[in-house]
Design goal:
Radius of gyration: 20 Å
Structural class: mainly alpha
Distance between the termini: 59 Å
Strand order of the largest sheet: 1-2-3
Number of strands: 3
Shape: elongated
Strand content: under 5%
Largest sheet: 3 strands, antiparallel
Order of helices and strands: HHHHHHHEEEHH
Length: about 210
């Protein structure tokens, strides 16, 4: 093989590794931003620029971008090794970044949000995000039995052991397991929150909870 494109490299990686949906989203985002270019030394410049944009323009955390960068580099290097290409993909330096304050939903916006005609899973997810800072992957794994009466909601797994927690939630009478993917959960909750604040995101809801507690 004389050349491999980014899209071909990602397809090889996905097929060979059987990656998760989360990895797929990262690769799709990189491809949409950078374009389907040839995998050669010039790609290092685009990888560097993509890293800068993710942090400085899109406001993603340095740690998150670093993890996404590792996924992209792993996919590219997988195809490079598989096809014997004389290409070295370097790890870009992470940019300096002054973290911007995330929007916080006002009480009026929260009233408007919860006054909407919400599905059961949407309402419970918004409540869990607000009261216990639950993220999409946690919302997906919560079971009906994790709600103790109408008081305590338990999250038994998370990105780290510190994320395991039980929190009082007096606003839920039951919990219905969510059958949607993490991506579908994120997209729907984002759409609902943007209806009351176009500049906000699900992170704003969790940031609102932190502000209320402080």
């Amino acid at each position: 093989i004389q050349s491999v494109t980014v899209q071909e490299a990602f397809t090889m990686y996905i097929t060979g590794k059987g990656i998760s949906e989360k990895y797929q989203r990262v690769l799709d985002r990189f491809l949409a931003d950078v374009g389907n270019r040839l995998v050669n030394q010039a790609l290092n410049r685009h990888l560097h620029d993509w890293t800068q944009r993710q942090v400085q323009e899109h406001g993603r955390g340095v740690a998150t971008v670093g993890k996404d960068l590792s996924i992209v580099r792993a996919a590219l290097n997988y195809a490079i090794r598989a096809n014997g290409l004389a290409v070295v993909i370097h790890k870009p330096e992470m940019p300096d970044y002054e973290k911007k304050a995330r929007p916080v939903l006002s009480r009026a916006e929260l009233r408007k949000l919860f006054g909407m005609d919400l599905l059961d899973w949407e309402r419970q997810s918004l409540i869990a995000s607000l009261c216990m800072g639950a993220i999409n992957s946690e919302l997906k794994v919560i079971k009906s039995r994790d709600l103790n009466g109408v008081t305590l909601l338990h999250i038994g797994s998370g990105k780290t052991k510190e994320r395991i927690r039980t929190v009082p939630i007096p606003h839920l009478h039951s919990w219905k397991p969510i059958e949607l993917s993490e991506g579908r959960i994120r997209d729907r909750l984002s759409a609902l929150i943007k209806e009351v604040n176009p500049d906000a995101s699900p992170y704003s809801l969790r940031h609102t909870a932190e502000s209320e507690m402080t």
